[in-house]
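It is worth pausing here to work through a concrete case rather than discussing structure prediction in the abstract. The textbook approach is simple: state the sequence, then state the predicted structure, then interpret. We follow exactly that order.
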Amino acid sequence: MTTGRIAGAGRLRMTGYAVLQVLLSVLALVLFIVDVVAVVLSVIVVGIPILLLSVPATRWLVDLHRRMYARVLAEPVPTPYQSTAGTSALERLRIAGADPMSWRDLGWLLSALPLALTTSLVVLILFVPVVTGIAWWYGVGPIMAARSRIDRWFLAFGTTERLEQRVETLTETRNQSLDHAAAELRRIERDLHDGAQARLAGLGMTLGMAAELVDRDPDAARRMLAEARQTSSAALGDLRDVVHGIHPPVLADRGLKAAIEALALDLAVPVEVTGQAAATLAAPVESAAYFTVAECLANVAKHAGASRAWVELGGTSDLLSVVVGDDGHGGADPSSGSGMRGVARRLAAFDGTMRVSSPTGGPTLVTLEVPCDSSSPRTTPSSGRG
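Step two, the predicted structure:
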């Protein structure tokens, strides 16, 4: 970021950040003292209730500074903490204690904050009309950028840590993908055994009996052949269903939007499908998106109590975005049930993410994002409706 590229509004915004950072420095000092004392007292259990309050407060303060430095440096806001969705308060505290980023937060409060606070005070001193106005005009950008880099060094993962996190995520998603693949194979085997295989076995017996009756009782033989024809048609239907569960033919023939529209026709809730996906989607990505939407719409029909639903397709050539919404009663709990956890696992295999917004009274919005290039890293934790 160069000074010449910063507009007047940008300088004022950075000065506003400096004012806020100076004001928050008192809270930061208090939280540091409380956190350290609570950690010491936790040995005798007394500090645990304090930590249940001080740790979320510390993370709120630190996240606020993350958002400020990300805006100054024009970078995405990082999400460095380990996911604690669906866990109890004590479990969240245990995870926070084991999370290395929690200790980096404390390090930032102790060492980086005083140094960074100095830069914010310099900006405020420079922000005086006439005397130092010119210095403020040319200095606020570099000073706040320097302050933001200090914050980033403490509050964001470095290259090594990001690679370690990436390896952990890939290991987890690989295991989830293997479990999902094994479950799918068991489902296909069960469907074939209970459906097409049983019908084909019955078909063979019917044809054998018909062959024995051709000379003795031609009428009975014809009836058995008609029954065999019906059985063969039913077996063919079972095979189509199995194939549809692996990869719907309409998806291969007409693309993602048409496949979702065909899926919507079978639901009791009216579904409107809008937008368009990129024409260059890889088949595995397209299939994953289709089945995640199918699971979301099935949840709408079963649990939402909705009068209508909608699917919005969009994104770029590098990212497929799908929003599944309904006007139901809302209140979806991402931590209950297995349906949306299965969706999250399916997406995780492609570095995809899922976000759920479901206030009480609705509407419920499930936002799915899948990189079109499966090598693109997207490791944001996901959550979903049960």
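Step three, interpretation. The beta strands are 271-275, 309-315, 319-326, 353-357, 364-371. The mean pLDDT is 79.
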